[in-house]
Amino acid sequence: SRSGPDRGSRSGARGQQENVPSHLLLDHENQQVFELLGRKCTTLATSVAQLYQALPPNSQVWGKQGCGVLCLVKDNPRRSYFIRLFNLKERRLTWELELSSQLVYSAITPYFHTFPGDECQAGLNFVDEAEARDFYALVEEKIQKRQQRMEKRQLPPPPPPVNEAPSLSPAGPSKQPNSPSGSLNLVTMDIQNPDITSSRYRGLPVPTASEKKKGKKKISKADIGAPSGFKHVTHVGWDPNTGFDVNNLDPDLKTLFSQAGISEAQLTDAETSKLIYDFIEGQGGLEAVKEELRRQGEFSP
């Protein structure tokens, strides 16, 4: 039988976290995944996905590296969180990435997530959009908590008592994020996953050469964009440290920002630009936004 639709972190007896199954897998398949996790490790989100990487020298082209069961793992012995991909057929871990406070994890479409890996840009192509959404939310939550802990460590010490000389702090007060003066009013677009289905990957083996020749539709550049250069800069021209590159901004995006009343100062502010970038990614990414702008232009009076 299949596991129920319950998703998200769950607590068992004595407040201990329980492994969260994927509703795409049979009960015994979920159990096999749990056994592969290792000692004192818990999966907070489980799904089925393909791993894509933009390996050098073709760093502008996505290449499929395999598929399997994807888990967001709380690794207690290592005191950290990891995204891990397991091959059920071979019963082994095939790939992992540790979550850091600097990780830029983006949902380019409802089913395709991208981020800088250890060696190159990487992407995850999910079977199920609901599980992809839950996975994204949990990853973002863990990254934000890590960022908050780091910010607390960098806060200046309390002022010294009277008659004592003040000590210098290496870190200044944390900057408060600014909010954009304008808001982007766009209609979201439905983009379906053309590449994988749960039935096709029953048992989750890596596709054979003969299966690859059956003419299935590949992920298109229009759907997910080309992999960005390995500089933590995304395909919309945004950098987490410097904001948007206003000198090389996409013309359609520049028009959109102008109509929304967003200034260059806001686009280059790290905190404000992240809010804008997150909104664009939430609409399905740059290509989806541009397509919606074209549609609105065609039907405008």
Can you describe this structure?
The chain is 28% helix and 21% strand. The protein is α+β, with helices and mostly antiparallel strands. The protein folds into 2 domains: 1-158 and 171-230, PH-domain like; 231-299, Alpha-Beta Complex (SerineThreonine-protein kinase PAK-alpha, Chain A). It has a 7-stranded antiparallel sheet. Strand 5 and strand 6 (92-98) form a beta hairpin.
Topology summary:
Blueprint: E1 10-11, E2 17-18, H1 27-36, E3 41-53, E4 63-75, E5 80-87, E6 92-98, E7 106-107, E8 112-116, E9 121-126, H2 129-154, H3 209-212, H4 221-224, E10 238-239, E11 243-244, H5 251-259, H6 264-268, H7 270-282, H8 286-299
Antiparallel strand pairs: 1-2, 3-4, 3-9, 4-5, 5-6, 7-8, 8-9, 10-11
Strand fraction equals: 15-25%
According to CATH, what is the class of the largest domain? Mainly Beta
Number of helical elements: 8
How many angstroms separate the termini?
Answer: 54 Å
Strand order of the largest sheet: 6-5-4-3-9-8-7
Helix-strand topology string = EEHEEEEEEEHHHEEHHHH
Q: Can you tell me the CATH superfamily of the largest domain?
A: Pleckstrin-homology domain (PH domain)/Phosphotyrosine-binding domain (PTB)
State the major sheet.
7 strands, antiparallel
Structural class call reads alpha+beta
What's the β-strand tally? 11
Using the alpha-carbon principal axes, give the shape: globular
Give the helix proportion (percent range).
25-40%
Total count of domains: 2
The second-level CATH architecture of the largest domain is Roll
Q: Unreliable segments (pLDDT under 50, ≥5 consecutive)?
A: 164-192, 197-218, 229-235
Keywords: Cytoplasm, Cytoskeleton, Nucleus, Phosphoprotein, Repeat
GO biological process, one term: actin filament organization
Subcellular location: Cytoplasm, Cytoskeleton; Nucleus
InterPro entries: CRIB_dom, CRIB_dom_sf, PH-like_dom_sf, WAS_C, WASPfam_EVH1, WH1/EVH1_dom
